[in-house]
Amino acid sequence: MKLRNNKSGSLLEILKVSTKLGLTSFGGPTAHLGYFHEEYIRRRKWMDEKTYAELVALCQFLPGPASSQVGIGVGVMRGGILGGLISFLGFTLPSVVALIIFALLVQGFDVSDAGWIHGLKIVAVAVVAHAVLGMAKNLTPDLSRKAIAIFALSVVLLWQTAYAQVGVILVTGLIGYFAYKQDNETDKANFQFPISKKTGAFCLTLFFALLVILPIIREITTSTLIAMFDSFYRAGSLVFGGGHVVLPLLEREFVPTGMISEEAFLAGYGATQAVPGPMFTFASYIGAVMDGWLGGIVAMIAIFLPAFLLVFGTLPFWDIVRKNGKMKGAFMGMNAAVVGILFAALYDPIFTSAILEPVDFVFAVILFGMLSYWKIAPWIVVATGVIGGILLSFL
Question: Which residues form a coiled coil (predicted)?
Answer without folding.
Answer: none
